[in-house]
Structure formats: structure tokens, C-alpha cells
Amino acid sequence: MKRILLLINICLVMAISANAQCTLKNTAFTGGEVLSYNLYFNWQFIWVKAGTATMSISNSNYKGKPAYKASLVTRGSSKADKLFLLRDTLSCYTGQDLTPLYFRKGAREGKRYTVDEVWYNYSGGHTNLTQHFLNKDGKLLKTSKSFSECVVDMMSMFLRARNLTNDGWKKGSEIKFKLVDGDGYDQSRLLYHGKSTVKADDKKKYECLELSFMIIKDGKWKEICRLFVTDDANHVPVRLDMNLNFGTAKAYLTSMKGVK
């Protein structure tokens, strides 16, 4: 159970900008949008509802300037709580041009509680990060990094993902990017497989783009998640198939509110 939140967050990823300042025009969503999901875990060959996830976007301010605030809350079901306690909340701020500004993840997983935080600063044509990680022992680790390209956390990337265009994509097309957290980053990519029809938990069928989210592990690309997003201007994630170290999990869309 403890990796379900991380994987559903990562799987809500679609694209990034190569611009070091990370600006991107938002045409896909407005403040007030709420997406809800059911989470399922394969426990000894039986699919069990593991909990729920809710993603919300609101109009806000960051350091006195207009911004978007996005939050993702994941909760384990009462049945899943008996196996593993899951109480996690993620949030981020971006500019209205979708430039990442701040990220936080508070994760209570079993008896562990950790906090990731990232602050972004843009100067000299670089993306400069201040990263904090509060580990399970209560020790605060601080690091700083600078990149010549745009880098994103799992939440700000979700907002940027909503504005991608798949014009000219064909099977095998890929997007590579750096994904950061409180103490490091991962080399990642998305691989396009074509289009599929998917039935969600709202009982509706959606025409979707099918992609794999992959990371480099032991020098090779490994699929972490197969994701299905609506083939329209909103690119809403409808279904996520996640490969865990201890099994598999799935997430299905249950409702959409305030979608542009």
C-alpha cells in the first residue's frame, strides 16, 4: 500500500516545457476543478478497494501574485487501513503561466511520516531549487540544485500535462523530463502506445491516449505505470495501471466537477 500514493501522483504526469523559465499557456482548466478516483490493490489475486484520491485546483495567490493551487489527497479504505495506514496530502503553487513555484508532500504511511518540500527560483537562465526532506527519523535534510532546463515536481507537472498537444504523435513517440522531490530527482519518460476506449468507475466510456510512465532502474527503462487520458483538450486521467514492488494497483475515475 505505501507506494500507491507516489505512483498515482507520478502517473498523473504528461509533459513538460524545455524552457528553463517553464512558462506554458493554460487552456485546459480553471480554478474550481475537482477529479475523484477509486484505488484498487491486487491482494493475493483478489482486487480489493484500497481507498480514494481527490485532485483539486483553485485560484490563489503566492507571495502576492496570482497563482494556481493544486492539492491531491489520498486516503486508504477502512479495510486497507487494517493492512497499511495511508494518510497523504500533496500540494503545489504555480504561476498562472504554470511556472512551478512551490511543492509539498506530507506522507503518513504505516508508522512512517515524511515531508518533501521544494522551492523554485528562476535567475540566470536556470531553474534553481531549494529542497528539504524530513525523513522518518525526524531529521531534516537540506539540499540545493540548479538546472539549465525546466524541472518539475509531480504536482506542477500534472497541471502542465493538461495543456500538452499530441499533434504528430505516433506509436513509440516519447517525452523525457526530470522529476524532482525533497532530496533528489529522477530521469523519466513517457512512451505513447496509441488510442484506447476505457470504461471508468462513473460507468462512462472515454476515448483515451494510452501511455507508459517509465524511469531508469539499473541502467534500463522500467514501466512504473500505464495511463489512459482523455483524447480531448482536457487530457483527464481516466485509468491508471500501476506496477508495485509487491503487486499491482489500479485507479479509476469516479467523477469530474468544474472541468473546463
What would you call the structural class? mainly beta
Overall geometric form: globular
The count of strands amounts to: 14
Strand content: over 45%
Overall pLDDT, averaged? 85
End-to-end C-alpha gap:
33 Å
Give the arrangement of secondary structure elements.
Elements: H1 4-11, E1 33-43, E2 46-62, E3 65-76, H2 78-81, E4 86-95, E5 100-109, E6 112-123, E7 126-134, E8 140-147, H3 154-161, E9 174-180, E10 185-199, E11 205-217, E12 220-230, E13 237-244, E14 247-257
Antiparallel strand pairs: 1-2, 1-14, 2-3, 3-4, 4-5, 5-6, 6-7, 7-8, 9-10, 10-11, 11-12, 12-13, 13-14
Give a description of the structure:
This protein has 260 residues and is mostly beta strands. Helix content is 8%, strand content 59%. The chain contains 3 helices and 14 strands. The chain has a 14-stranded antiparallel β-sheet. The chain is globular. The chain starts with a helix and ends with a strand. The model is unreliable at 1-6 and 12-20 (pLDDT under 50).
Task: Write a brief caption for the model.
The chain has 260 residues and is mainly beta. The protein contains three helices and 14 strands.
Q: How would you describe this structure in keywords?
A:
260 residues, mainly beta, 14-stranded antiparallel β-sheet, 3 helices, 14 strands, globular
